Amino acid sequence: MGEEIKKQEVRLEDFYSKMLSTIGKITDDEIASTLKESHKTLSVAESVTGGMVCGRLTNIAGSSEYFMGGLVCYHNRIKVTELGIAGSLIAKEGPASKSVALAMADNIRKRFKTDIGLATTGCAGPSPLPPAPVGQVFLAIATPSGNEAKELFLQGTRAEIREKATQAALGLLWIHLGGEI
């Protein structure tokens, strides 16, 4: 039996990451309808997704009824100057961190005076963004009643990670709005 068995690394996305990225695909119309019916407004701060969440939200006719706008805060300088994230927080935690995602969501909500703030940050690769490895993504949602963040570990190419993060952000919003999964 002189066959040599090759070791192969198998990385599986966690269930929550897969669930969020799946439901994000199918809920754009439901999100729009729910936001319209609830009369809630939304703003978005994006880093890793680079405007893809805003793009999905504005693909729906009538989105100006609930979507006030967004900022692509890709560079740390923009996170500090335009979104008011403390430079010391970015230096301490890194731009792809839970605390930065929470601050992004809260600050965009306050800056745009909306009911809900949604934020994305993370590392899509191909190189890691220490301390964040490729595929680590943080999503955050902020409301007057509190803030919540989720950490995801996504796999794929840079484009696939960004698309999954976009879908997951919309999935998190859907869950927050009371959408069924």
**Uncertain parts:** none
Radius of gyration: 17 Å
Tell me the name of the CATH homologous superfamily. Answer: CinA-like
**Amount of beta strand:** 15-25%
**CATH A-level architecture:** Alpha-Beta Complex
Q: Please report the distance between the alpha carbons of the first and last residues.
A: 49 Å
Main sheet properties:
5 strands, mixed
Q: For this structure, what is the CATH class?
A: Alpha Beta
Overall geometry comes to globular
**What structural class do you assign from the helix and strand content?**
alpha/beta
What fold name goes in the CATH topology slot?
A: Maf protein
Helices, by number, come to: 7
Count of the domains? 1
**Which strand order do you get reading across the main beta sheet?**
2-1-3-4-5
User: How many strands appear in the DSSP assignment?
Assistant: 5
Q: What is the arithmetic mean of pLDDT?
A: 89
The run of helices and strands is HHEHEHHHEEEH
Approximate helicity band = 40-55%
